[in-house]
Amino acid sequence: ESTRHQVLRHSVFVVAARDEQVSNFVQNHGFSIYGSELALKYSHIATVSATFCCDYSCKSLGILDWIQILLYVLDHCFEYLCPLRLIFYIDKFHNLLAKTATSHLNLETNMNKIITEIRAFVKME
Fold first, then answer.
1. Do residues 29 and 11 lie in contact, with contact meaning Cβ atoms separated by under 8 Å?
2. So what CATH class is 3-124?
């Protein structure tokens, strides 16, 4: 099994086992890659979870903000957000993921401006 699959499998088990009342940061969960201890940052909306596996140099709150924006955008752009919609519309999902990652939307805090920019982007597709 590849390292990528091991990280993915381990991350799913760790996040799924967590209580919803605890924080969205998991550190020291016993998994490392290439000698670096990994931390998980995650969030849920509906039945969709977004989990990022990072080393400790990543800014936890910045990653969590970006995850929240990504989930908000996905929820807005996919009516009835669910994992199957992301699978069936994988190209749209990848485009929205790329747009939120490369356009620095996480620097913007006004959700109306974020949605306006995403709507313009979706119309261009």
1. no
2. alpha beta
